[in-house]
Amino acid sequence: MIEIKKINDLNYSEQKNLFHRYGKDYTSVMDSVIPIVNDVKENGDEAVKRYTKNFDGVEISKLVLTHQEIEKGFNRVPAKILDAFIMAKDNIEEFHLHQKPKNIAYTRDDGSRLGVIYQPVEKVAIYAPGGKAIYPSTILMAAIPAIIAGSSDITVITPPCEGDVVPDIILAICRIVGIDKIIVSGGAQGIAAAGFGTQSISKADIIVGPGNLYVTAAKAYLFSLGLIQIDSMAGPSDVMIIADEGANPKWIAFDLLSQAEHSEDAFSILITTSSQIAESVKEEISKDIETKTGRYEIVKKSVTENGLILLADSLEQAIEFSNRFAPEHMELMVSDPDSYLPKIKNVGSLFLGHYSPVAVGDYFSGTNHILPTGGTARFSSGLSVDSFLRRTTYQHLTGNALKTAMEPVGIMSKVEGFDSKHGGSIYVRYEEDQPDAG
Amino acid sequence: MIEIKKINDLNYSEQKNLFHRYGKDYTSVMDSVIPIVNDVKENGDEAVKRYTKNFDGVEISKLVLTHQEIEKGFNRVPAKILDAFIMAKDNIEEFHLHQKPKNIAYTRDDGSRLGVIYQPVEKVAIYAPGGKAIYPSTILMAAIPAIIAGSSDITVITPPCEGDVVPDIILAICRIVGIDKIIVSGGAQGIAAAGFGTQSISKADIIVGPGNLYVTAAKAYLFSLGLIQIDSMAGPSDVMIIADEGANPKWIAFDLLSQAEHSEDAFSILITTSSQIAESVKEEISKDIETKTGRYEIVKKSVTENGLILLADSLEQAIEFSNRFAPEHMELMVSDPDSYLPKIKNVGSLFLGHYSPVAVGDYFSGTNHILPTGGTARFSSGLSVDSFLRRTTYQHLTGNALKTAMEPVGIMSKVEGFDSKHGGSIYVRYEEDQPDAG
Fold this sequence. Notes:
The structure is a homodimer.
Chain A: E1 4-6, H1 12-19, H2 27-56, E2 64-65, H3 67-76, H4 79-97, E3 104-107, E4 113-120, E5 123-127, H5 136-149, E6 153-158, H6 168-177, E7 182-184, H7 187-196, E8 206-208, H8 213-224, E9 229-230, E10 238-243, H9 249-260, E11 267-272, H10 275-290, H11 296-306, E12 307-311, H12 315-325, E13 329-333, E14 349-352, H13 358-363, E15 389-396, H14 399-415, H15 421-427
Parallel strand pairs in A: 1-12, 5-6, 5-8, 6-7, 8-9, 10-11, 10-13, 11-12, 13-14
Antiparallel strand pairs in A: 2-7, 3-4, 4-15
């Protein structure tokens, strides 16, 4: 069962396990993944189908579902379910519309014009994990920012479920956001198909969305070849809840349990300044697991192995600890949470107050749920409109402006060993010889 | 010597070589790099010094140079050289200050507050290649956006030159931008030292800057472990010049030559609608190489193997070709270049008009010269203030707003197999039981 410890009592190795929870070593996975990727590169559709048969036990007749199949699936989903997803879609759109950046443009006194133009990455592939669990919400989270960025060609990659079939709700969500291409093949072979393109699949420029170790390794490998952009490396999910004595222990317990519900390796951590809260939350968690309802076996293993209740001397100590942990999700269930914002760092998504459980962000509030895990929030961010934009800088110098640059560029380029043409390409415009290096 | 061809006459394999110029296969390099990285992880400073001795033939006494050594180097650089770099620094600062994004915050009708907070990635390492060529300008290009983003801890990684020495100009540039830590060790071992941290080197969260194949492989490997963020994969540099009949052939020739001056594998490509321009540029290039001055041997090999003059039927065809090539640098030497902007895609940095040669962007105009190579401009961007920022999304829902979300979240989470606690964590706040799945 979940343990209670004091932050001050954590030893070096306990801290290290929490703060450096990144990275399995991909070396051995890569050894399996690279031959699959190269096979798909060489043999296209045939290789993709072969691996899908071998790994998923499914013989797929058509690699890509199109408009008609998607329409049929959509029509089979009950209206009540569709309505829930459409309400969520509206909130996600609203939130992400705020993220669209404006081009930058300015003119210098010397008449030179400079700026930055934002353009969409055109070809997007979204990986939607399959198998027992399905994640239609992930398609919303990936597709909406891509559409707002202006990406014109969006494909979903997903493994087939039982039979040669993609679940109706996945089809329906594609229909709702306007995606009309679904690659029915997951794993490294699905990623490779989108990364290189095959006879029936067009090449993607960016592949996003969470997947298992093989999917993640294949994405990282294709990225390392300069073939595609990817979102951040996907690992186990986590939540860090910081609560003071005014928080409700049952609510905290349920929020931790909802994280544990994801998987056995998910981290569910509470830091509190109140030992009474700590004890009550522990009790609530035990009590709930004893009901043996829902996914209680996963939950039990998850909180026992990767759950933790920490006692802090102060909220400042709690926040400092969280800054080092770099949580994917952080709930701040304290009075006046806003006053702590300037001190909080390295969080994927922040849930403020008592009525913002992570589950509402997972589905409904509008923020993105594809977030940096494994402590990567120290240097990366959740999916956003930015993720699907590229920037082009530009400069349009006047003849006079370039002349001002002539001598300094000549000096700098010679320092760097470009003796002749870097400076020379400016001097030639004024029919001057570049002086020798000083 | 550089060849002239018609775009219409390029066969499939010629097109493929140009459009798919990404990616050496890193597999074999990775096999050398991973043991080095793991050795540094295990053995820290001792391993870094050992590899530097083996690979660079240099026994370094101190792995990290600090303030005093940097100050001394700065004092040895002639004022004229310093002045040139300082003028460049001012322009680079001006350009990048325009890139600083504003936080996003808004309130919904139901009282919920949502937004995005931008924060700096705190610990930055900049790789500056060494050996025969040195690139102090690259330190400006990486350090200035990081400083504007607010990164607090910036380190330079650079291999030692002859003797246990870092060139004065590198030290001086560090002094100018305020960097006071230099790791005197390059290659995979330098990257690993910054990626993991060692006894004398603090761990970085992001490592940027171009390097050779081993440096790039080490960066990609550490990225794949979820340890660091990196900029895009570095490959050979390229320029695409689009010129109409009004352009000056000698200026074009020098701009192509300045690209070829970089390295033998650099791509220097002109597309023109004028066969007269094509012929004249070819002649100017030949004439210049025959002078046998500067780096003419590198230049000759570069333009012969990777240079190309293409004839296009129209500027539209030229731009469409460039969009597929996705150049790092594009010069548009045509009348009224602005009118073509809406059609241009997938460019790292754009040089408009007749007085904007790439060399002025390399050093002086203010745009960043760390740009996407190898066609990665299709999905990635040059270094910018954004590269050193992370985003935290947040949501602060009111009790009423969460209640509205209760039913849809319950429905959606059950669809995804989270039967119990995702919806439950909302229902519990209203002391309601979650209904069974519909």
